[in-house]
Here is the input.
Amino acid sequence: MQAIGGPAPVASPDVPEFQTSPGTRDILPPDSARVRQLVSIFAEIVGRAGYGEIVPPMFEDLGVFQRLGEATDVVTKEMYDFVDKGGRHIALRPEQTASVVRAFVQHSPLTPWKVWYYGPNFRYEKPQTGRYRQFDQVGIEVLGVDDPNLDVEVIALAARFYEALGLRQVRLSLNSLGNPDERASYVTALQRYFEANLDALTPESRQTLLKNPLRVLDSKRAEDADVVGAAPQIGSFYSDETAAHFESVCAGLRALDVEFTVTAHLVRGLDYYRRTTFEFAAEALDAAQNAVGGGGRYDGLAEDLGGSATPGIGFALGVDRTILACDAEGVFGAPSLAPSAFVVDTTGGHEALLITAALQRAGLPADRAYENRSMKSQMKAAGRSGAAFAIIIGSDELAAGTVTVRPLAGHAGEDRTQLVVERGDLIDTLRKLIEP
Ligand code: HAM
Here is the structure.
């Protein structure tokens, strides 16, 4: 097929005509099983804390996401948006907080409303390791509670999740961005400070300053480090109430032994944040892509989306980056997909059909060879599958109503003895062998 407006793809026997589009990947077994396990650990941890799953649609009216802030790259540069056949301006979701809050306003559930989610998000970013155009997040959101204990609960759940995966080098940075008035005064002060120090800023940061002075604090460029380091800090602009809320959050985290660093210059990439904000960085990953998760309060978002004033807080953790961090720390490996039994049938294949179905129905993972191959070829397939046992049925076994159970390399036990068992006893025998 010829790309519209582009050159005809060069056909080559080695390069298939169609490949995943830039920034997207196929997640194949066994990695897909790892993602599934990660999500089920997450679901268990947050489920225990009273969160129910929400599955919002993957696309929404563009306006829902425009509320993320007109000065954010996510809105101005990275949105996958299009006009659908009904003339609606639609966007693929770049994140799920806005969708969750839209759902809250639409359905008016009782508060506190505690939900969790998992699924893909879409951002037109420059693809690189750990930065994709389609990426998965797990996350939670809570609407209707303005209590610092909730901030602590939310942050601690993320920390517990990383711990449950076995990650030990994830660092939590915490900040409060103040309420909107405090934040506005801070932004004005920051603007004045950077304007007075314009010569010390890189051209990129000068551009950022025109759009959002807060984002200049985010600069990772070494040339900006001095001027950013000496910039005013938000803490001097807090009201007593904001300062007390933040102090309670810090005290609660200490009480739960969640380690954190207060990072006065932590700003997040989305504009809806107020007061508590946080980010998790995996130190085992390259600094440019080491943010494995983040979140905070977004107390004004429900109002922005047409609802009544409702406090909200949550986080989202990048599944892809979290798995990269696990690889870097050598933890949370892919689960084994090996079956318990692999049926080798040299009588034509019908017996394998019956035996695998019976084993699977009894809850024992079982696979088989196809196409009536030779015994040698079937045994090779059995070994490749990683199965603990080959269940062999040839003409002798068929006539005698038995099967041969042969331990394979996938069997962890010491005893390598081959057994001949009655077909009716196979399930019980295998169960005993697998879980002695
Ligand atoms: P975010 O910081 O934009 O926040 O994304 C959260 C996490 O998603 C990041 O820390 C990162 O691990 C992952 N992530 C983001 N973009 C990409 C990408 N292009 N490729 C791979 N991973 C990526 C949010 O999305 C907010 N909705 C979080 C939140 C929830 N705040 C309050 N509630």
